[in-house]
Design goal:
By secondary structure, this protein is α/β, with parallel strands linked by helices. It has 22 helices and 25 strands. The strands form four sheets. It has a ten-stranded mixed β-sheet, sandwiched between helices.
């Protein structure tokens, strides 16, 4: 890539300060930082001295890894005892075993022909239960009654057997048909999920929402207003109405003016077909979500009215926003909400692109809302022609069955015996052209360390020859400044409770011997990416670990739960240079490439090498 004059000067400055090296990845040590200026990071010192050339980062993306535990009326386990919600707070979805709901369920087309008998068995079970339980039930109460129901002369299968027989898709549809609106005692108001951000026990989770609003407020201030306007998109959800109240309240409490942007795969289909009246059908066929127009009548009406106004109204809302946040769930649904079937961007995605390019919009996401951001469609800063979007799979299925381009199998397809030919329910799948295309540096993955996704990320990197992969842990976020992306420079930072894991595929890597250099960054760490090279800037409070006498500990299977992250940290704290684990047919070796750094609060910065060999 040919550099402009400004890019050349920036590159020279980075080289002169040790931020870019000839090697693919360099690490600035704490001593380097202290030598530059003890009260700031190396990057901040550089910015202070050369402000006209390297502006202070103004982040455009805030990509969270999911698992953001927040106190709400439906999640009291995340609350301090002092949390209190008013009488209009929703504590659970409501269900009713009543002739009306049972008749709806009996006539619903939910099961494929060969599984229709399950629907009849369930109807018999629910009819029997309705004779003794005909009042409102919470989801927990309904499921307990269901699973504890014994078999009888009329019903050959007991409740537990029926429960276990259903796929996830079938179970969700059954619950949809038994659900009723949650209303106040006088029936005038729909109960809403309420949030108490101040009483959230997990401080890092609450702080992520506040930080998103703070960054969005900076965008607002540049436009001359003091309060950020944040749009909430729940397109990743099977039921895109269920989480609306939560996100509106959480960002409102964090200080923003909030509005739901009801952009979903169903809405995009209705706009494309010019058939807003068919929204309930599109919700059923695309999301597997039923009767939402009855359960959330007010929200459904908002969606319907925006549909009738067309693309122009949706675009207007995006153009006026300072922040837009995408929820978790299924990234393929969000993809369908913002890209047409041929992959071209919708007017709404084009408006988001423009907001990013003009640095007037902050885009955030969590879980699937982060994974969907992968792709280089908007940029040309990566040497790869395409950055894929991961859509399904776990590490061991990835190692065994490799990666396949195409749609992800739906949860429960194995029970229904309807998985696509040659694809298991846990198959590693991906969209080759990428997702929304806002993050061009590499593949994004989430719930990363907690679900042992290191191997699935590396398998996909190898299959698609994508140099970098980024795994974001739960209650953690990767901040991205794209203002210099036209010059091939992107600034990154990590915030939150855990780590962002960066995997750099090595040239000698093969499907039989996967090899990557890996880098784990924690709160306060920063990095600069330039033309497919990454330079790490550890937080100034990180120091080199010198007391490395702890025993080396590992758990098997390594790519399960947070076992890999535990081994990585244990290797830092031991006097071993490497750890080798045999998990036939795989031989896994993790080794230190540089001294590990640690902050007083325990956060690690590591530079290591991962090698996974398939034994012959």
């Amino acid at each position: 890539m040919r550099l402009s004059c400004s890019s050349f000067f920036i590159t020279s400055l980075l080289l002169s300060h040790g931020l870019l090296q000839a090697a693919p990845v360099s690490v600035a040590t704490t001593q380097d930082v202290a030598a530059t200026e003890t009260t700031t990071t190396l990057q901040e010192a550089l910015i202070a001295e050369h402000t006209p050339l390297i502006p202070l980062a103004k982040y455009d993306l805030m990509l969270m890894g999911g698992g953001i535990a927040t106190c709400s009326s439906m999640s009291r386990r995340s609350c301090h005892e002092q949390a209190n919600f008013n009488q209009l707070a929703k504590s659970s979805n409501a269900y009713l075993l009543h002739p009306t709901t049972l008749q709806l369920f009996e006539t619903a087309e939910l099961f494929v022909a060969e599984r229709k008998p399950l629907q009849q068995h369930l109807l018999q079970l629910f009819t029997r239960l309705s004779q003794t339980h005909n009042t409102l039930l919470s989801e927990t109460e309904l499921i307990a009654l269901w699973r504890q129901a014994p078999a009888s002369s009329e019903l050959a299968m007991n409740g537990e057997a029926l429960w276990q027989a259903l796929s996830e898709r079938e179970l969700n549809s059954v619950l949809d048909y038994l659900e009723v609106p949650t209303l106040s005692q006088d029936g005038k108001y729909r109960l809403t999920e309420q949030v108490d951000l101040a009483q959230t026990t997990h401080l890092a989770s609450a702080e992520l929402y506040r930080q998103f609003v703070q960054l969005a407020t900076e965008k607002a201030q540049a436009k001359g207003r003091t309060q950020a306007k944040v749009l909430v998109v729940t397109a990743s959800s099977r039921d895109p109405f269920n989480a609306v109240d939560f996100y509106l309240d959480v960002f409102r409490q964090a200080g923003a003016k909030t509005q739901w942007l009801p952009l979903t795969a169903a809405l995009q289909q209705a706009l494309t077909e010019e058939n807003c009246a068919a929204l309930p059908q599109y919700l059923a066929t695309l999301h597997g979500s039923y009767r939402r127009e009855q359960i959330y009548a007010d929200l459904f009406n908002q969606k319907l009215q925006l549909c009738r106004k067309g693309h122009s109204e949706l675009v207007k809302l995006i153009e006026d926003a300072d922040g837009i946040f995408f929820n978790g769930g299924d990234q393929s649904l969000t993809y369908q909400a913002l890209r047409y079937a041929d992959g071209t961007p919708t007017p709404e995605l084009a408006a988001i692109f423009a907001g990013i390019q003009q640095q007037r919009l902050l885009v955030g996401g969590t879980s699937a809302g982060t994974a969907v951001m992968s792709g280089s469609q908007l940029y040309s800063v990566s040497s790869n022609s395409a950055v894929p979007m991961i859509s399904n799979g776990d590490s061991y299925h990835a190692l065994q069955y490799a990666a396949k381009a195409g749609a992800a199998p739906w949860p429960g397809c194995a029970k229904e015996q309807r998985c696509p030919e040659g694809i298991s329910e846990r198959q590693l799948t991906y969209t080759a052209a990428g997702g929304l295309g806002l993050f061009p540096l590499g593949i994004l993955d989430t719930h990363f360390a907690e679900r042992g996704r290191q191997a699935r990320l590396l398998v996909l990197q190898q299959a698609t020859q994508t140099r970098f992969g980024f795994g974001v842990d739960e209650a953690t976020a990767l901040l991205v400044d794209l203002s210099l992306q036209a010059q091939g420079i992107v600034q990154l930072a990590v915030t939150g409770a855990a780590e962002v894991y960066i995997s750099e595929l090595q040239q000698e890597s093969t499907p039989q011997q996967l090899i990557a250099h890996t880098f784990s960054l924690s709160n306060g760490d920063k990095a600069i990416w330039q033309n497919d090279k990454l330079s790490l800037l550890p937080a100034p409070d990180k120091t080199t670990l010198t007391n490395n006498n702890a025993p080396l500990q590992s758990k098997s299977p390594l790519f399960s739960r947070d076992h890999y992250r535990s081994l990585s940290h244990s290797l830092c704290q031991s006097n071993f240079a490497a750890a080798t684990l045999s998990e036939p047919p795989y031989l896994i070796r993790v080794s230190n490439l540089a001294p590990c750094l640690q902050a007083p609060n325990g956060g690690f910065t590591t530079t290591q090498r991962l090698r996974i060999t398939t034994e012959q």
